[in-house]
């Protein structure tokens, strides 16, 4: 599942980390791939900045195998493929090479380590890194922040999804849009949520992620919110989202 939205600060990385951790609680082996040069998902799960010599950058540009780059986290069942700041230059390095959108997908096919779920945390742009993620993914999750311009840019994102489908990934599905940073004391949050549901209907997950300070604090302790404060509203919300996704996928299989 690629977690994608070209806007920054909408909750992609937060959703990638916490959804991955919540899925791992279901006895699933889960891999989080950090495709953002900023590496917030890597930092948030405890990978030090000076310990990133085996990263998505090396997988995409040097042919490093995913098996050799994946490492465990402190959360049982959750693994991470960290990013590297040089990933920002990967686009230039592989920009015109053949199969440039397929680098991640090829590396994933070549990997032998088995995972039940792979989440890809995308950078805040519709660049070659995001296209690699969309080419490798079976489905996408789109976090939308409950603020005024939430829907802005969505049509551009959907065009990019169509591009990946027209390429080699015709089965790419949209798991759904997840509303993030919902503030029940703020009328704008409720208005935006209503508006988004009116426009997108069943494409919007029932689960809404509330604004919750525990969610914001957890990364500085290198933990997902599900272990940092297991009883918090944030942890509960991400567990609900995980259950909703497991249900959806079970139905899709049938
Ligand atoms: P993106 O990856 O889309 O750029 P992030 O996941 O990094 O967005 O989130 C942006 C900021 O908002 C971060 O500082 C994060 O801690 C904070 N944040 C995200 N979701 C929540 C939430 N539900 N409650 C409180 N803070 C949140
Ligand atoms: Mg991010």
TrEMBL record:
InterPro entries: AAA_dom, DNA_Partitioning_ATPase, P-loop_NTPase. It holds the Pfam family AAA_31. Gene3D superfamilies: P-loop containing nucleotide triphosphate hydrolases. Residues 2-174 form the AAA domain. CDD domains: ParAB_family. This is Chromosome partitioning protein ParA. It comes from Algimonas porphyrae.
């Amino acid at each position: 599942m690629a977690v994608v939205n070209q806007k920054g600060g909408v909750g992609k990385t937060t959703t990638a980390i916490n959804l991955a951790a919540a899925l791992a609680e279901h006895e699933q082996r889960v891999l989080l791939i950090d495709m953002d040069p900023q590496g917030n998902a890597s930092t948030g799960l405890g990978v030090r900045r000076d310990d990133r010599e085996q990263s998505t950058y090396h997988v995409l540009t040097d042919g490093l195998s995913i098996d050799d780059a994946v490492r465990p986290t402190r959360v049982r069942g959750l693994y991470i493929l960290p990013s590297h700041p040089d990933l920002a230059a990967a686009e230039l390095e592989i920009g015109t090479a053949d199969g440039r959108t397929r680098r991640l997908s090829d590396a994933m096919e070549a990997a032998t380590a088995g995972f039940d779920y792979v989440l890809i945390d995308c950078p805040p742009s519709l660049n070659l890194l995001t296209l690699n993620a969309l080419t490798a993914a079976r489905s996408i999750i789109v976090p939308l922040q409950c603020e005024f311009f939430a829907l802005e840019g969505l049509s551009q994102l959907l065009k990019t999804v169509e591009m990946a489908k027209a390429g080699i990934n015709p089965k790419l599905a949209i798991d759904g849009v997840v509303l993030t940073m919902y503030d029940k004391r703020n009328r704008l949050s409720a208005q935006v949520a209503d508006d988004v549901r009116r426009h997108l209907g069943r494409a919007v997950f029932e689960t809404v992620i509330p604004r919750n300070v525990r969610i914001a604090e957890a990364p500085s302790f290198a933990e997902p919110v599900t272990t940092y404060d297991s009883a918090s509203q944030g942890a509960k919300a991400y567990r609900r989202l995980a259950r909703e996704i497991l249900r959806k996928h079970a139905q899709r299989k049938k």
